Inverse folding.
């Protein structure tokens, strides 16, 4: 098990003096193993990005544990050698004042100061070719001279220069056009054949379905359903998952409203505390979300 | 015909020269028709939407005419357009948050807005329309910050169609919303057309699948020009332009898996509109391109109401 989240909860203090609190993530547990894409699906405010930030160590969890290769995940140089994140807006990931390839130089300075310059240049070019970029077209350019798709791929190339094991990809394709989006997705899918684990955070169900082996559906900070993508999308057990799936616009079908579910599978099976394992590996929460 | 656009050319002034964002667009929109306008970033779809209501300072009208309900729209004249805005042509912007005044409660904002146009609020009608899009009347006594993204978007929809405009331009109204909210907003838009609040609508988006659910006709744009225009079903089921086909092929639908069927993007990127290439603008990315493509393909009606600009179609 590479990444394991166990009962992770995150509360944010809000209000003028932090008098109120809001629970963004409530006791979420799941794993990511090497060579697997797990998609984390949820609507705005479901806590999906917060989970990504907790894993990357950008915010501390309020309770619960996040372990990476058996050790507690702790933000720091060693951790970021193996775990990297890429975010939604490529233009805010780059400093507009500097050339875009500065991100590679910064990696060299902090992680590989001993590598001679020519060898490093060779590694950068190889890494760029791995992400299907022509090095001559992207090196030496400023961020505004490159397209969003090129910048996102540049960031993937940057992560590949490190000894990366886990990539947290938070909505990395939502600002890209349909024609380039799919190339970035295919690239993520190729990463898993190198043994990388990818946590793909998205609100777009069709993209998650395309890419992921396993799917975790979040709502209001809690997991409502998770399991193999085929099972979650092919035979959704939770009414919320059904509602989400039915709202996705499809090319050859009309919108259909899902049939209302009156019985709660979770309750019917007499489960309590945590998720119900309805079939091997396929977990579902109570249909009422709060409690039956 | 409610809207006729002929040979419309709108350029952007930049330090490097003229960016030809719209380079000779012609199309028509019938009464009661919803036109879905799709294309990649930078293809000119938003420019087209903006040109019909308000050009910003960098845009200028180079040529072409726009006729709405038999009257020519003075699109180049910012002041003269004031008579048409809101009454004849209205817009739902992409970011509803920035369209609402954060310092006013909704009711006061609507009242002030209508007063500035010389009319008063018909409270019953306003509430009836809010009800139609699923907004409770209490929303009127709230500040914009107290509403969710979907509620704000629907509120803006109600406000911008209060004067029953002939043409409504919806610019990427659903792209910032979640799927279930998106569905509600899309259905509300259809409801507005069916109730006759707006006569016709241009729905600008980059989401082909969503457009198919709303639009009667879909127009695909590429690099400032029309690539293909036909009924929504024809575009989705029997597209003729290679660009439309590739665009459809690159759409991951629920049910398509990487492991089973690998989708492909479209290689390359659209040409710069600062100095667009001669001939077909899709030529460099087109798998079918041949010698004749060095010459610009005209827009041809290959079947009734099916327009394509491609030599190979």
């Amino acid at each position: 098990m590479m990444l394991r989240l166990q009962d992770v909860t995150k509360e944010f203090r809000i209000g003028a003096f932090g008098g109120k609190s809001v629970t963004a993530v409530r006791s979420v547990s799941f794993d990511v193993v090497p060579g697997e894409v797990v998609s984390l699906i949820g609507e705005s405010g479901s806590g999906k990005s917060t989970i990504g930030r907790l894993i990357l160590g950008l915010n501390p969890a309020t309770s619960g544990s996040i372990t990476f290769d058996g050790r507690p995940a702790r933000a720091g140089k060693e951790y970021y050698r193996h775990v990297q994140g890429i975010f939604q807006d490529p233009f805010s990931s780059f400093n507009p004042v500097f050339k875009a390839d500065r991100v590679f130089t910064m990696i060299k300075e902090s992680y590989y100061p001993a590598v001679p310059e020519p060898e490093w240049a060779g590694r950068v070019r190889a890494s760029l070719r791995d992400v299907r970029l022509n090095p001559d077209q992207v090196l030496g350019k400023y961020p505004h001279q490159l397209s969003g798709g090129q910048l996102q791929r540049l960031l993937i190339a940057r992560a590949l220069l490190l000894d990366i094991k886990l990539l947290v990809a938070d909505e990395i394709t939502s600002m890209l056009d349909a024609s380039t989006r799919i190339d970035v997705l295919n690239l993520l899918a190729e990463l898993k054949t190198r043994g990388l684990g990818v946590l793909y955070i998205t609100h777009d169900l069709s993209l998650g379905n395309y890419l992921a082996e396993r799917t975790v559906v979040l709502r209001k900070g809690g997991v409502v359903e998770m399991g193999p993508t085929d099972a979650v999308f092919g035979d959704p057990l939770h009414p919320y998952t059904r509602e989400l799936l039915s709202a996705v616009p499809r090319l050859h079908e009309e919108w259909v409203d899902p049939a209302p579910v009156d019985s709660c599978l979770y309750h019917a099976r007499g489960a309590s505390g945590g998720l119900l394992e309805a079939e091997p590996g396929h977990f579902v929460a109570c249909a009422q979300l709060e409690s039956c | 015909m409610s809207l006729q656009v002929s040979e419309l050319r709108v350029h952007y002034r930049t330090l490097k020269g003229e960016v030809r964002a719209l380079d000779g667009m012609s199309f028509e929109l019938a009464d009661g028709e919803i036109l879905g306008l799709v294309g990649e970033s930078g293809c000119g779809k938003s420019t087209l939407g903006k040109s019909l209501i308000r050009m910003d300072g960098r845009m200028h009208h180079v040529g072409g005419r726009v006729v709405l309900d038999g009257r020519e729209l003075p699109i180049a004249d910012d002041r003269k357009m004031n008579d048409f805005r809101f009454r004849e042509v209205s817009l739902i912007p992409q970011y509803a948050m920035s369209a609402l005044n954060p310092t006013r409660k909704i009711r006061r904002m609507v009242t002030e807005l209508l007063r500035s146009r010389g009319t008063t609020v018909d409270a019953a009608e306003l509430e009836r329309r809010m009800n139609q899009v699923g907004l409770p009347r209490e929303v009127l006594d709230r500040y914009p910050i107290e509403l969710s993204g979907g509620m704000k978007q629907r509120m803006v929809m109600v406000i911008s169609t209060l004067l029953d405009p002939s043409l409504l331009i919806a610019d990427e109204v659903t792209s910032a919303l979640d799927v279930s909210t998106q569905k509600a907003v899309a259905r509300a838009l259809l409801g507005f057309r069916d109730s006759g609040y707006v006569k016709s609508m241009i729905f600008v988006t980059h989401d082909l699948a969503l457009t198919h659910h709303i639009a009667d006709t879909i127009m695909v744009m590429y690099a400032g020009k029309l690539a293909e225009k036909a009924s929504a079903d024809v575009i989705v089921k029997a597209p003729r332009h290679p660009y439309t086909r590739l665009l459809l092929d690159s759409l991951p639908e629920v049910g398509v898996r990487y492991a089973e069927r690998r989708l492909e993007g479209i290689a390359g990127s659209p040409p710069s509109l600062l100095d667009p290439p001669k001939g077909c603008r899709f030529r460099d990315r087109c798998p079918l391109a041949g010698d004749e493509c060095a010459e610009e393909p005209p827009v041809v009606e290959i079947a009734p109401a099916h327009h394509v600009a491609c030599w190979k179609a």
In short: The interface with chain A takes residues 40-41, 149, 178-183, 186-187, 206-210, 212-213, 236-237, 246-248, 250-258, 262-266, 269 of chain B (CB under 8 Å).
